[in-house]
Amino acid sequence: MIIKNESASKIHLGFTSQSGTTLEPGETTEVSDELSLNSSFVAAKDAGVISVVSYDDSDDSYVAQKELKDLVATTVDTSAPTIPVGPTRDIATLADGIALLDDSYFRNGVTFQVDSGIYPDSVSLSAKVPDKISIIGDNTRSLAGYHWKNGLNNYYWPPSYAGSGTISITNSGNEIIVTCGTTNPDFVSGGIVAGDKVITLNTAGATAEYELANAIDNRLILTTTAPSMTGDTGFFIAPNVQLGNLSISGPREINLEGVYFKDKRLSISYSDYVVYQNICTFSSTFNFYSFSYIKNLYGGRYTSAGKQSTTIGFCNNVYIWDSLFLDDGTTTFSDLKAEYIDRFLPEWIDIVAKAGPLGKVGVWAEYIGYILANYGCRVKNLAYPLFYQGVKNGYSWGDIVDTGQYGIWCAGATMYLDGPTVQNQSVEGIRADNKSLITVASPTLSGNASDYSPAVSGTEGNNDSIIVHP
Question: N or C: which end of the chain has fewer CB within 10 A?
Fold first, then answer.
């Protein structure tokens, strides 16, 4: 039996009975009549014109017997393939990889392993999709996509070589130096190399992108003078996989890790289970992360043994720095929005908007069954840093909100806020509204026009709402 590539694109075929083969446009290959495709991939921009053919000796021509897409529907292997994506691969872009799913060859799941590079495509996946889809970027280097913030305690299952204990960041010449209370980072062992991008938040609250010339132990040597890193500062090392706008709707399971969105948006909806970790963004224009109609949003950092911990939360290491929202007058924008979700487990979310005119909402959690924020959220320079609406049962530890209008706003929610720091809010530090019950334990409040609304007295206010101390 002969297979002919009648498409305009190069294709690759994987078989169980013989080694795979790549066909140029118009090229043919002969295979066993008992053809069985394995869990490799069948790739072309238009799979419908790849045909199984026989050869007609009488007029020296190929006669189509069956389109390959029909054959695949009955013979494709049930295991989940891993498809490499990259500029030197048969599948050059993530958009080309997603296009392979149009005929649903991989019904039991597919993993796109994305090589280093910039992928500007705006990709939408919402039609026929596998039960599980994974988009894995720069996850082979433990510190790619991780961040360090001055004064925070780096003890919640950090990746290998990140260091542990309270973080201290200084600068000298071209160097950024990181020390931790227990063990210092080891950037070289963590896979950080020359050419990596270092995104900094400096002493003045400004963000910038630098290139790494070298890494030695706990020191990052930049190609130019390092910014001032004393005070409320931090940095992250961007993964070498930069994606464009990405929208995924429908797969039962989604795994997204080790990618970098610059000036781009991400939307995930209608899934039972989402793992989302080591995701970074650094934007001078617009960011929008939206998660909706999902049963379980969570993830897990990788322990030193390399096994995933599923006891801690979904938004591991999410950084949205330098965001500036463009408001068209009809839409309320937020950095990260989660709505209609059974379980929302954020951790180490760090959002710093541009100073000046306040943006909109930092973290917007709406109609959530259960929230557990083990290490809280840090949000600065936003009108509504944290907005919890319709939360049935929420617990957050260590939230830090600074320089906004309403620090933590709870509407129709039951929340336990453990040790929040809320400061410099021009209207109210913590607000309960629309039949909310808010318990605030060991808060640090300063510089707010009003710390609480209603007052912490057990007296109802703002439409039958109450704020109490435990």
Answer: C
